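Hey team,

Filing this mostly as a record. A colleague (T.K.) asked me to run one chain through the structure pipeline before their review meeting, and I want the input and output archived in the tracker in case anyone asks later how it was produced. No errors, nothing strange. Just documentation.

Input sequence:
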Amino acid sequence: MAELLKGAPVTAALNEKLQGEVAELGKLGVLPGLAILRVGEREDDLAYERGALKRCNTIGIAVKQVVLPADVAQDELLKVVNDLNEDKSVHGVLIFQPLPKHLDAEAVRAALKPEKDVDGITDGSMAGVFSGRPIGYPPCTAKACMEILDFYGIDLTGKRVTVIGRSLVIGKPVAMMLLQKNATVTMCHTKTADLPGECAKAEVLVVAAGKAGVVNASYVREGQVVIDVGINVDNDGKLCGDVDFASVEPIVKAITPVPAGVGTVTTSVLAQHVIEAARRSLKARNS
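Output structure:
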């Protein structure tokens, strides 16, 4: 039976650490602030927003909610983004995506200052992830994978890690962060020849394929650590990952469950980024 790499202990440890950091910033007269910018009433956005509000309240981060109608004009949305860029009480901005189709999402992302991009949606943040420099922030879900590996003491130095998925949300940024931890990374995708064979070579497997149950027993071997990033709904209406948990869990050494795995950690990572943004802002102001 595999060790379950649950997100709850990771979140609890992060929250305790972040509460202390908020208290230290408070002594310096700084209250970390997050702005949540939502266009429309998508249910998945609302669910994440509720989780983010709860997490920020627990940690002590101020939150400003900005809700715009689904038919908002491009110019109006860009004005709101610019206003948040200039608002000194806001250290981080979370813009829910995807935006309605009539909006130019690329222009909206480009309008957000990287130093306030706490969910890694700007080109500036991606430049920071790829260069290893403190420019912007990585996507929260990708960073959550790294927090789980770190919390459970999984040393990545010299390890062979296979990442399934090449999106800018998970695959590419998590591959860069794994490299920064001295892992040897192989990136795979839908066009990879012999995907099961490539996965079986790995000591750590990060699955962000976007397809329910795509990784089954034929992809894994004993001793592996599996990080399942997928969030899907199965035929019974239940949440499931990109890994066929029932067939994979008896084989591997450790695995994140879905739900209660990676997704549990993302809002704490969001809070972590807001606090870091507040710290950087204070440093820039004092320099």
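Quick notes for T.K.: The chain has two domains: 31-113, 140-263. The mean pLDDT is 97.
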